[in-house]
C-alpha cells in the first residue's frame, strides 16, 4: 500500500473543506419556492468538524487497518484507475459516508430552516469514527461510540432533534450493521461498537451497506462500485459495451476464502471450478487485492454469464453490485445476501427475473452442482434475465457529483436512498400520530 505523506492528506482535507463550503453556500438559496420540493426538503445539520472532516486527517493512523488516505480523493470516490480514465475510480466502499455527504450538498431541495425540513441529514462519518473503537485506542470503550454526537444534538439547538424526537434524522454508516450492533453490556466484548444498540439512536434512520436480518432502524443501500460516470453519454457507452460483450464463460467467482476444506459454500465453489475449468472462471481476490483494482475483475465479469455471490464473513458483498454493473447475472446462496437487504433499489418480488437462487445447503450438504443448475437455464431465458439486470444498472450506481443534466434525470442509488428516507420518515411520523391519538 502506498503511504502518502501526511501533508498530502492535509491538502486533500483542505480541498474538501473548500469545496464543501462552496457547494453548501450555492445550494442554500434560490430554490425556496420550488413546487417540486414539496415534501422533499432536507436540512443538513451543521456539525463540528470533529464529526466528519477531522476524521479524515487520521487516515493513516490505524495500524491494523489500511491507510485509507488514497481513497479520500475526489470526495471519497478515490483516485481514477489511470490518468486517462473518465468514469472509473479506485473506490473504497467505506468512503461512501464522504461521497454521500458531497451528493447531499448538491441535492436540489436543501433548506437552511430545520423547521421546514421533511428530513434532517447528519453529516457524521460514523464508520470512520468507529475505526478508533474497532481498531484503535478506544477499543475498550466501544459502547461510547456515538454518545458524543448525541450530546451535541441535545445541547446545540436541541429543538431540531426534539421537533420529531429524531424520527426525521438520517445518516450513512458505510459498513455492515454487525460492526455497530454489539449489545452494550457484552462482557467480554466480541466485536463492534454499540451505536445501533443505543436507545438514543433508535428513532433515526441509518443507511448502511448491510442490515441485520430483522427490521430495525437501519436500511441497506448499495455498496458503491468503481464506476461513477458524469454524463449520460458515458453511462450509455458503458451500457452498450455490457450489452454486446460476448459471454464465453458460464460462471465466475471473484473473491477469496474457501481454500480450507470444510462444509462451506466457497469451498464447494472452488472444488467445482477446479473440476470444470471450461465452464468456470475464478478471479483470485484473497487478501483484498481486488478491492481497489476494478480492472482485475470487471473484464472477467463482462465475459461471464453468471457471477457467484456466496456469503463470506457476512452475507453481503460489494461484488454483487460489480456483477450487476457488468451484466453478469448474480447467483445468490442465501436471501440475506441481497433480497432481504436492498428493497429500495432492487424490487424484492422481481429477484427471479434478474438473479438465480441456489440454497447453500443444497450445494454444501446435498452435493448439488451449480454448473448443472445454470446449464439447465434455457439461453433465451438467460438473455431475458440479462436485459432485466441491465435495467437495474442506473439504480445501483452512484453517478459522479456534478453530473450532466441528462444523467441527473435518471435516478441513481443516491436518489433512491433519499426517496426511501423521505417515505420512511413520513410513514413513521404517521404511525406516531396514530399512536398518540
Ligand atoms: C485521531 O485524531 C485525534 C485528534 O484529532 C486524536 O486524538 C487521535 O488520537 C488520533 N488517532 C486515532 C487513531 O484515533
Ligand atoms: C499520471 O499523472 C501524474 C500527474 O499528472 C503523473 O505524475 C504520472 O506519471 C502519470 N502516470 C502515467 C502512467 O501516465
Ligand atoms: C483493552 O483491554 C484489554 C483487556 O483488559 C487490555 O489487554 C488492552 O490493553 C486494552 N486495550 C487498550 C487499547 O486499552
Ligand atoms: C424516540 O421516539 C419516541 C416516540 O416518539 C420518544 O418517546 C423517544 O423519546 C424518542 N427517543 C429519543 C432519544 O429522542
Ligand atoms: C469432479 O469430477 C469427478 C469426475 O467427473 C466427479 O466424480 C466429482 O464429483 C467432481 N467433483 C466436484 C467437486 O465437482
Automatic annotation (TrEMBL):
Keywords: Glycosyltransferase, Golgi apparatus, Signal, Signal-anchor, Transferase, Transmembrane. GO terms for cellular component: Golgi membrane. It comes from the Eukaryota. GO terms for molecular function: glycosyltransferase activity. InterPro entries: Exostosin, Exostosin_GT47. Residues 37-366 form the Exostosin GT47 domain. It is a single-pass type II membrane protein. It is found in: Golgi apparatus membrane. Its main location: Golgi. Residues 1-25 form the signal peptide. Belongs to the glycosyltransferase 47 family. This is Exostosin GT47 domain-containing protein.
